[in-house]
Predict the 3D structure of the following.
Amino acid sequence: MKTDNSIKEITIAAITRKAMNPESWIYSKVCIENKSDEFVLEENELPIFEINSLKVKTIVTTRRIIEKDNEKIFFINFDEIDDVVYGDFKKQINKPELSIFRIVDMFGEEYDFQMETGKASIGLINSVNTVLKLKASH
């Protein structure tokens, strides 16, 4: 089984290869540090990608996706994810800066998390898809 450290390194490398203009992202960022000021993480769990809008904070870690909306926190473990639906914004002319992506767990429950649209969405999509692949391969 891969360590949290190797999951983070592989995922950030995947984001870096495909992401365009990360300096132009408004709400999103790759987490270089191994701690989060916003979220309490489990022992050895590492942050990979964050989306911080005015009201909602979202983080993709080596183990789960966590979102804080005001003081309400919810999360899903990568081991429980069955499907991810990102939506298609390519043809929209006036696309919003923020949208949602949907996670369906193995029990059929659906969870909506925020995502930044445009070039920043590549960072989020690569972080989630890479961690899912790494988790599936162990």
